[in-house]
Amino acid sequence: MKVLIMEKNLMLLSRIKNSLSMHDVRVGSDFRDEHVVFINVEAFPVNVIRELKNKGAKVIAYCGHKNVELQKTAKEAGADLVVPNSQVIDAESLIEKLKG
Questions:
Q1: Using CB atoms within 10 A as the burial measure, which of 19, 22, 60, 71 is most buried?
Q2: For residue 58, what are the CA distances in angstroms to 10, 35, 50, 71, 80?
Q3: Over the chain, what is the mean pLDDT?
């Protein structure tokens, strides 16, 4: 599965990427037909979620656990899942949740 990670924090990026070793993972801010996009909504505008959804991507948004308002905004923007940073490091299980 093709996965895009939109993250600027190198430590968090490394942890997310390590949990996705079975997938074709790319890091960046430009969508190229990936199936799933992980987006840090504290580092990238929330309105990007709508653009990604319109292009057919499944979107997993994440941010700090205390940033409840931003989590709500990400969900309203159409994110398939919204999780705190502490959960995004187990990215593989989040992809499994998307599959249902």
A1: 60
A2: 23, 6, 11, 16, 6
A3: 96
